[in-house]
C-alpha cells in the first residue's frame, strides 16, 4: 500500500525527530536522506524526506523541497507535512516562509497552518508568541544561534516578514474549544484572505485538537509536535498498532561528534567531558590549514576500545562570535562541518558503529559524508531524539550503523552518557 503522509524536513535531526514522533503515534515511518533514487519498502505509512535546506540559499531550499514534494506525490502520499524547527529557525529571507508558499502553490492550496509547538520539549505558543521554557524565543539561547539567531518571539510578525500571503492567528481560546472551533476559525481566516495561520498550543491535548482540525488540509507546516495529532486522521487506512520497530543496533566502538553550540549541547558536552576523553576542534586551526582531522583520528584510535570518545567544536556564544568575526559566519560553520564530517568517516573506518551526532547542520554534513540513504527509527532516548539504524551507506561497506542525530537543544544533561543504554 502507498504511504499516506509525505513529510519534508528542513534538516536531518528535525527529520528523525518527526519520524520518531510518527512512529510513537503508530505510523510505520521511514526517513530518507535527500530525495530518494530508489523505491520505498512496502511496509511504510509515512515517509520523511530529510533535506539540508534550513540555512541554504532560499532558491535552493525551494527547489529541493519541490523535488521532494514531487517524489512524495508520485509515491502516492495523500497529505504533506513541511517540518521545521520547534524554535522556528529562520531569517527574514526564509527559509520557512518561501518553502511553505512554494509547497502551497504546487499543491494548489490557499490555506495552511504554521505551528512549531512541541510541549514535551517546552516549546509552546500563546497569542502567537513562541516560548522556550519560561521565556519568549528572543530571550532564550536562540538569540545567540550561530546561523539563525531568533530575535522576535512573535511568530505572526516573524513569518509575515518571509511571505507574500497574509499571516493570521488561531489563538489559544479557540484551540481550547476543540477541533470544530479551530476548523471554523480556519474558514473565517480564509474568508479574510489569510493564507497561513499560526496556531497556539500549550500541551499535547492542543496538538490532538489541531491535528484533528487539519485532517482535510493538503499541507501542514509545523515542528514535530503536530505529528502527535495527525495519525488519528488515518485510522480508515492504517492500523496504528505495532509500528514501532526496534531495529537491531551496532555492537562496536562508540563516539560522539558535537558541532552544536546550543545551550543543551553545551551542558551535555560538559557532562561527557568529566567522564570520557574529549578532543576540541578549533575553527581557527582549521582555517590555518592544520590537519585537525588527522590529529583527531590519531588521538581517538587508541582510546576507542576503552569506551566512547567525544570530538566537539561546541563553544560558548563569546567563542563562537570570536571565530565568526575572524572567519565569517558561513566559513566558520562550513570549516567545522566539513572537519566533523571527515572525522565521522574516519571513525567508521576505525570501527565505530554506534555514533551520536549533536546539531542539525552538523548531522546533515555527517550523514551526507557517510552517504547514508535512509534511516529506520528505533527507540527514543529523550523527546525528539530516537536511535536510528542507517540504510544503504556505501561508506560502511553495507554495514548498518546505529546513529542518534540529536537536535542542538534537545536532551537531558546526561544525554551522551545515558543514550547507549537505550540500544538493544
Ligand atoms: N566554535 C564554533 N565557532 C563557530 N561556529 C561553530 C563552532 N562550533 C560549531 N559551529 C557551527 O555552528 C553551527 C551549529 O549548527 P547545528 O549543527 O545545526 O547546531 P544546532 O542543532 O545547535 O543548531 C554549525 O554550522 C557549526 O559548524
Ligand atoms: O523541532 C526541533 O526543535 C528539532 O526537530 C529541530 O529541528 C532542531 O534543529 P537543530 O537544533 O538544528 O538540531
From TrEMBL:
Its EC number is 2.7.1.217. Pfam families: NBD_C, SBD_N. Residues 255-416 form the Four-carbon acid sugar kinase nucleotide binding domain. Keywords: ATP-binding, Carbohydrate metabolism, Kinase, Nucleotide-binding, Transferase. It is an enzyme of class 2 (transferase). The keyword Electron transport does not apply. Residues 5-229 form the Four-carbon acid sugar kinase N-terminal domain. It catalyses: 3-dehydro-D-erythronate + ATP = 3-dehydro-4-O-phospho-D-erythronate + ADP + H(+); 3-dehydro-L-erythronate + ATP = 3-dehydro-4-O-phospho-L-erythronate + ADP + H(+). GO terms for molecular function: ATP binding; kinase activity. Coiled coil: none annotated. InterPro entries: 4-carb_acid_sugar_kinase_N (IPR010737), 4-carb_acid_sugar_kinase_N_sf (IPR037051), NBD_C (IPR031475), NBD_C_sf (IPR042213), OtnK (IPR050007). NCBIfam families: OxoTetrKin. Catalyzes the ATP-dependent phosphorylation of 3-oxo-tetronate to 3-oxo-tetronate 4-phosphate. Belongs to the four-carbon acid sugar kinase family. This is 3-oxo-tetronate kinase.
Amino acid at each position: 500500500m502507498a504511504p499516506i503522509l509525505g513529510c519534508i524536513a528542513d534538516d536531518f535531526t528535525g527529520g528523525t525527530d518527526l519520524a520518531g514522533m510518527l512512529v510513537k503515534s503508530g505510523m510505520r515511518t521511514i526517513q530518507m536522506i535527500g530525495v530518494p533514487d530508489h523505491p520505498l519498502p512496502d511496509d511504510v505509512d509515512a515517509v520523511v524526506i530529510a533535506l539540508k535546506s534550513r540555512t541554504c540559499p532560499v532558491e535552493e531550499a525551494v527547489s529541493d523541497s519541490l523535488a521532494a514534494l514531487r517524489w512524495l506525490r508520485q509515491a502516492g502520499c495523500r497529505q504533506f507535512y513541511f517540518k521545521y524547527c520547534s524554535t522556528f529557525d529562520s531569517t527574514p529571507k526564509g527559509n520557512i516562509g518561501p518553502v511553505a508558499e512554494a509547497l502551497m502553490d504546487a499543491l494548489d492550496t490557499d490555506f495552511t497552518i504554521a505551528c512549531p509547538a512541541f510541549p514535551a520539549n517546552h516549546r509552546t505558543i500563546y497569542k502567537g508568541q513562541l516560548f522556550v521554557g519560561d521565556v519568549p524565543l528572543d530571550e532564550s539561547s536562540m538569540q545567540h544561534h550561530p546561523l539563525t539567531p531568533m530575535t522576535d518571539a512573535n511568530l505572526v510578525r516573524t513569518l509575515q516578514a518571509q511571505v507574500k500571503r497574509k499571516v493570521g492567528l488561531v489563538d489559544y481560546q479557540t484551540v481550547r474549544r476543540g477541533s470544530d472551533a479551530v476548523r471554523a476559525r480556519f474558514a473565517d481566516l480564509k474568508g479574510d484572505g489569510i493564507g497561513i495561520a499560526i496556531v497556539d498550543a500549550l500541551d499535547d491535548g492542543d496538538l490532538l485538537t489541531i491535528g484533528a482540525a487539519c485532517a482535510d488540509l493538503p499541507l501542514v507546516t509545523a515542528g514535530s509536535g503536530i505529528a502527535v495529532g495527525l495519525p488519528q486522521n488515518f485510522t480508515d487506512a492504517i492500523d496504528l498498532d505495532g509500528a514501532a520497530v526496534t531495529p537491531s543496533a551496532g555492537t562496536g566502538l562508540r563516539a560522539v561528534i558535537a558541532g552544536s553550540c546550543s545551550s543543551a549541547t553545551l551542558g551535555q558536552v560538559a557532562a561527557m567531558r568529566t567522564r570520557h576523553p574529549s578532543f576540541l576542534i578549533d575553527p581557527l586551526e582549521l582555517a590555518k590549514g592544520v590537519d585537525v582531522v588527522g590529529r583527531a583520528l590519531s588521538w581517538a584510535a587508541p582510546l576507542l576500545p576503552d569506551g566512547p570518545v567525544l570530538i566537539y567544536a561546541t563553544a560558548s556564544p563569546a567563542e563562537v562570535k570570536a571565530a565568526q568575526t575572524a572567519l565569517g559566519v558561513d566559513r566558520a560553520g562550513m570549516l567545522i562541518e566539513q572537519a566533523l564530517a571527515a572525522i565521522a568517516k574516519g571513525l567508521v573506518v576505525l570501527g565505530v558503529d554506534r555514533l551520536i551526532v549533536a546539531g542539525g547542520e552538523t548531522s546533515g554534513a555527517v550523514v551526507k559524508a557517510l552517504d547514508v540513504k535512509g534511516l529506520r527509527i528505533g527507540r527514543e532516548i529523550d523527546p525528539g531524539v530516537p536511535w536510528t539504524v542507517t540504510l544503504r551507506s556505501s561508506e560502511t561497506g553495507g554495514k548498518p550503523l546505529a546513529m542518534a542525530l540529536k537536535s542542538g537543544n534537545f536532551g537531558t544533561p546526561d544525554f551522551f552518557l545515558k543514550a547507549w543504554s537505550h540500544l538493544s
